[in-house]
Fold this sequence. Notes:
By secondary structure, the protein is of the alpha/beta class. It has two domains: 24-272, 3-Layer(aba) Sandwich (Aspartate Aminotransferase, domain 2), CATH 3.40.640.10; 275-406, Aspartate Aminotransferase, domain 1 (Alpha-Beta Complex), CATH 3.90.1150. The chain contains 15 helices and twelve strands. It has a seven-stranded mixed β-sheet with strand order 1-7-6-5-4-2-3, with helices on both faces. It has a five-stranded mixed β-sheet with strand order 8-9-12-11-10. Helix 4 runs parallel beside helix 5, helix 11 runs parallel beside helix 15 and helix 13 packs across helix 15. The N and C termini lie far apart (55 Å). Residues 1-10 have low confidence and may be disordered.
Amino acid sequence: MSDQANSESAKPTIPLPDTAHYRRETRLVHSGSLRSQFGETSEAIFLTQGFVYDSAEQCEARFTGDDAGFQYSRFSNPTVFSFEQRMAEFEGAEAARATATGMAAVTAAILAPLRAGDHVVASKAMFGSCRYIVEDLCPRYGIESTLVDGLDLDQWQAAMRPNTKTCFLESPTNPTLDVLDIAAIAEIAHAGGARLVVDNVFATPIWQSPLKLGADVVVYSATKHIDGQGRCLGGVVLSSTAFIEEHVQMYLRQTGPSLSPFNAWVLLKGLETLSIRVEKQTSNAAAIADALAGHAKVPRLVYPGRADHPQAATVKKQMGAGSTLVGFEVTGGKAGAFRVLNALKLVKISNNLGDAKSLVTHPATTTHQRLKPEARAELGISDGFIRLSVGLEHKDDLIEDLLAALQKA
């Protein structure tokens, strides 16, 4: 392991292409591109643990921060740096830091700036591992937490305390696709002297920009749509330069949840096609939602792109389009849901999402199985509820597969 550095300065200053004036889809292809002396078309992968120095004096300067170069790939790496720069420019953030997984990004964004005696307010409706961080892990270190109904602004306001430092939410939520009013919650957080952290995975950066809505920090599981093809794990935290350098950088550097250079390269390739993939998946999801709506064996369907979504007005205000996810309940409870899942031929059973392949899961027995039955019921996660992540297949093939499976419910 490399020696601990004396300085926690920013990442190295490297000349990058000026792409800020291009439209978003173009930036997904060209921003943050590093080229070696060989002029390769595709970004190189710097599969290296460490870096060598021209002299002992240069090595010393790297560790004091007087020479802004690379030191050790746990701290920073050219390929990882390229991914971070592309994400930051696309998201409209001042800075970004990549992590080994999405949960590493969430954990860093929440824990890095907090101290014993601080307080977190978070929406009850969130991924099971995120809820574990807020509800179970934070209190172990003297950080208090309060869970609220994320749709109820009065509950957010009532939960704020003088020691509240962070508010956290997902929107749309996992798995019931509630859409929270990010701008309104940001106002409450800021009025109370807290920062707002938003997990934007279900909306993707294509359809929602939390920083423009008032959020202070955005996190992604890059494992999902950013890779989008089931290949590797990754995460990213995006925020102001001050937040990243004062909190996240030191935390990641010393605790070590580093993104591998190979995974960073894969994610760079994923970003190049993110827009066209998400647009197609969203179109497919909307068609599937329309096909399932009103089905005799689907008493409840939730899709942010439909006019009957419970927060349709909020969706219209803050999202560019619906999600790539569809949530629906089938008759027959757990047994009915399992019969549907087991009858599917094209759609595969998996707890992942955002993949080019359509994937389906049963949240009550997978992603949210840790919650007590009453907690799941409060969130609308019934035993018959199914979460569908829509892929790139032809929509008619997916609809035919789902309708045939529903006959088994």
